[in-house]
Design brief:
Layout: H1 12-23, H2 28-39, H3 47-55, E1 58-59, H4 61-68, H5 70-94, H6 104-114, E2 118-122, H7 128-140, E3 145-149, E4 175-178, H8 182-192, E5 196-201, H9 207-217, E6 221-230, H10 237-245, E7 249-252, E8 260-263, H11 270-273
Parallel strand pairs: 1-7, 2-3, 2-5, 3-4, 5-6
Antiparallel strand pairs: 6-8, 7-8
């Protein structure tokens, strides 16, 4: 999930120098140029309409998960406390703020609920989401494996070492991590997997970036697979995907400003949904 780096390690000048030094490394300039082009693609003009559409359909994640399986949601909440304590300790050890990890409780819940064997995610950052998937897969005990695609934080020295830094050694045996960007990583991952049971998209948030990654991965989803996308409020891609595929999807969000899109999870029980 997306995390933020607080400005507590080096000056602005030092971070800028790290960025420039890393951008010119082989293979990195092309990825960064693509991100810049996507940022100025003009899609922000439609963002307000997309946010309104998502907000009109949103369900609070805690309400949804508790309605589906209250005991499992309690387990997911306890896992969240475990992860937060681990992140605080790692932040202290590294001397760097690891930010907020996003919806790791929801990811853990979905993985325990649906028991996937093959999980693919784009977007790792410090590893909140990866930790959630791997801990849930371990507790499922089904031999599940996680494949992850990411691109390093270029504002940090030796940036590759921070990707997934939160994932402890005892969970890494069933984890394959690649850090050269989705365009390079996803074809390699897809060459190693057959049917994908759970796909979590949280990398390039632009419309073209989402279209590229999902056009590659979605055709490989199994018939009962779960598809999750973080920060769908950034554009209309998820709304358009539901319309194109005539899929029933969920919009999960605790507020009217940030949402997760989900396809393949159980619908909200009608008697609870109607109660408001």
């Amino acid at each position: 999930m997306t995390s933020t780096v607080a400005p507590d390690r080096g000056s602005r000048l030092e971070r800028a120098l790290h960025l420039l030094r890393n951008v010119v490394r082989p293979g990195y300039a092309r990825v960064v140029a693509g991100k810049v082009r996507a940022r100025f693609s003009g899609e922000q003009r439609e963002r307000a309409a997309a946010v309104a559409w998502y907000a009109s359909r949103r369900i609070a994640p805690a309400r949804y998960c508790a309605a589906i399986d209250a005991d499992l949601w309690a387990e997911a909440r306890a896992f969240g406390e475990e992860l937060e304590a681990h992140a605080a300790a790692e932040s202290e050890r590294l001397g760097i703020a690891l930010g907020a990890g996003g919806r790791y409780e929801l990811l853990y819940f979905a993985t325990r609920l649906r028991r996937p064997r093959t999980v693919v995610e784009t977007g790792v950052a410090f590893g909140y989401s990866s930790y959630a998937f791997l801990r849930a897969l371990e507790r499922n005990g089904d031999g599940g494996r996680l494949w992850s695609s990411d691109f390093p934080f270029l504002r940090l020295p030796d940036p590759e070492r921070f990707v997934g830094v939160l994932v402890p050694d005892d969970l890494r045996e069933h984890w394959s991590l690649r850090t050269r960007g989705d365009a390079a990583n996803l074809p390699e991952i897809l060459a190693e997997v057959d049917t994908i049971d759970l796909f979590h998209y949280d990398s390039d948030k632009s419309y073209p970036g989402r279209r590229f990654g999902c056009d590659l991965v979605l055709p490989r989803l199994g018939p009962d697979a779960v598809f999750l996308m973080d920060d769908i409020q950034d554009n209309a891609w998820f709304r358009d995907h539901l319309a194109r595929t005539r899929s029933e999807g969920l919009v999960l969000g605790a507020t009217d400003r940030a949402f997760v899109g989900a396809v393949g999870l159980p619908p909200m029980p009608a008697e609870i949904a109607s109660s408001g």
